[in-house]
Amino acid sequence: MPTPRLILDWSLYRLALLLAAPLIPLRLLWRGRRERGYLQHWGERLGAVDVPTGAIWIHAVSVGEMRAAQPLIAALRAAQPDAPVLLSCMTPTGRATAESLYGSFARIVYLPYDYAWLVRRFLRRAQPRAGILMETELWPNLIHAAARASVPLMLANARLSERSARGYARLPALVRACLQRIAVVAAQTAADAARLAALGARAPQVTGNLKFDIAPPAEQLERGAGWKAGWGGRPVLLAASTREGEEAPLLSAFAGTAAADVLLVLVPRHPQRFDEVARLIEAAGLPYQRRSEGVPLRAESRVLLGDSLGELFAYYAACDVAFVGGSLQPLGGQNLIEAASVGRPVLVGPHTFNFEEATRLAIEAGAALRVGDAAEWMAAALRLLADAPARARMGEAGLAFAARHRGAAARVAGLLRR
Q1: Is the dihedral of CA 379, 382, 388, 391 positive or negative?
Q2: What is the pTM of this model?
Q3: At what angle are helices 388-404 and 356-364 packed, to 10 degrees?
Q4: Which end of the chain has the lower number of beta carbons within 10 A, N or C?
């Protein structure tokens, strides 16, 4: 019997969906001005999908989650080689990432918006044998429809920061009802499991972070080594996965402090910001070129704008010191495991709450250092560039750190087979 609080929470959620409905096409058109992918496949966002039935269905909202799913998908395909694979996402960059990683064997679509009739339509067409929601994708109507259709759901690689937990707690009865309908919750850390249990998850299991199981692709390591060799032995700083409000102070600190031979490779997190970041580099007065130009690095270039997709491991392999963005501003940080797994010293800013456990463990292992702002980043980076033994120690610590925490994919796949 629904409680009054659950009725209230459902009513508020449905009201929010109702109010948002007229804005959805406007938002897609607006986003499509900068990223053309938002103008495509609108039928899929309404549940009109042509998909195989009886598939293993994995939903990963965007790039990071789609990459994190890679070792799990490999483990599931090894265990069930004849099962079709259906991948859903929400963003064009997530779709592009899925196409590059899984396009040879998986059907890739957009997940419809969380309106009851749309998600019922999606599930009726797909009839998946099981659904895996990556990280923290709690869509009430989708979860409710899956339960009614007898589709077992797993929340895999689940993470929940204190900030996100407070947000979910605003609709406590609705969130509890969602979590109660998820058959298996596989959390990254004990802290994530505790926060999910407090919100209503049934016996969440701690399985570790799937991102530790992602092996750096050999071809990307070779590509990065080739870049580095072609850059004439210049010291290379990488600022990876940077976000709004970070590039300008990083560029200012670099322009005012670094020697002329130091190369800054700047890789924004979101491709729709490539042109914006190019303008910031120009405003800083730094000669630069784009990776997309596909030409050798010019001697006068101080900055290389990494405006390419799917090459992050190559950028890490080409650098001497890596900074992982999303952490100078209160945005929660990005994944530092990839840099550590390539054996590069890692610098992060003060805001890493989305990757709290991995960052803490990397710092404790001696694989990463935390800086307070762009000036501290520049000072720490230059110290490391001048100290090859320190770089080597941090790189070796990063390799050991990444290896020590592998195994999550096998544990999560084991839970799904129960």
Answers
A1: positive
A2: 0.91
A3: 130
A4: N
